[in-house]
Design brief:
Layout: E1 11-13, E2 16-17, H1 30-40, E3 50-53, E4 56-59, E5 64-65, E6 81-84, H2 97-109, E7 114-119, H3 122-133, E8 140-145, H4 154-160, E9 165-170, E10 187-191, H5 203-216, E11 219-224, H6 237-240
Parallel strand pairs: 1-6, 6-7, 7-8, 8-9, 9-10, 10-11
Antiparallel strand pairs: 2-5, 3-4
Helix pairs in contact: 3-4
């Protein structure tokens, strides 16, 4: 699971497998179908993590800690941006505090990598990082997902998290987010949903976020249109591409000058 086609990272690292649906952004999560395929390939770690709901494959709530995966980053000598738990959520309620601390130990001992942790549970993230982690690692980026205005409050938890870099993934963007306080937020990723059941994205929703990023000095990364293009027509995500306002946007957060 090291190599990845995700545009904003270099590799994925999955010491946890399995999750559960919490909000509308989870409805068509790619990881659910991926877990089913990996189970079919007889990869034990992913066995029994999903169930069928009509025609859909969804998480069944089983979450598995994989201690064997903890050592993987030590073997990567070349510095990488590493997306932590692309197949789960590190701060899921069924992941123990002790295991999260073990993940932090690996990240502390591999400072040549940058780790990108994305959660839909930022309230647990801020509580645990503030109370049990202690130090702020310059190579650990903390992020949360915001898919529409219904979950914008996640940014307040994120802002309270002690971190060198804080980021928001507005993906899949399935509705307008309205005003978002980007103070203390270093990076924003925006993207539309992909897949046969994808929900549309609107250019005005992207505009709204982009303008706020410019005002706050937040780096802006446009990942994809997804299944629905700028013209509101459905086609492959490759055909729709990554151009927004006539160019690609691959901005990344600046290296931290100080941490808080």
């Amino acid at each position: 699971m090291a190599e990845t086609q995700i545009e904003w990272t270099d590799a994925t690292w999955n010491p946890v497998a399995g999750c559960s649906i919490v909000t509308a952004g989870c409805t068509h999560c790619y990881a659910m179908e991926m877990a089913k395929r990996l189970e079919a390939m007889h990869i034990e770690k992913y066995a029994g993590l999903t169930r069928k709901s009509g025609r859909r494959t969804i998480w069944n709530g089983v979450v598995r800690e994989d201690r064997g995966a903890l050592a993987i980053p030590y073997s990567w000598r070349k510095p990488r941006k590493i997306f932590v738990n692309s197949m789960s959520d590190l701060f899921h309620e069924r992941v123990s505090d002790a295991f999260i601390l073990d993940v932090w130990k690996v990240m502390r001992e591999t400072p040549h990598h940058n780790y990108q942790i994305l959660t839909k549970r930022p309230e647990r993230m801020v509580e645990l990082v503030a109370s049990k982690i202690g130090d702020v690692l310059p190579n650990v980026w903390l992020g949360t997902s915001i898919e529409d205005e219904n979950v914008v409050n996640r940014v307040d938890y994120l802002r309270a998290a002690p971190a060198a870099i804080r980021f928001i993934s507005f993906e899949p963007l399935i509705g307008a987010v309205g005003a978002v306080n980007l103070q203390g937020i270093h990076w924003a990723i925006v993207g539309g949903e992909s897949g046969k059941s994808a929900r549309p994205i609107r250019e005005e929703w992207i505009d709204e976020i982009h303008v706020q990023c410019l005002s706050a000095g937040t780096a802006f990364f446009f990942k994809q249109w997804g299944t629905w293009g700028k013209d509101n027509k459905k086609r492959s995500k490759k055909a729709n591409g990554r151009e927004y306002r006539g160019r690609t946007w691959d901005e990344m957060p600046a290296a931290p000058q100080s941490v808080a």
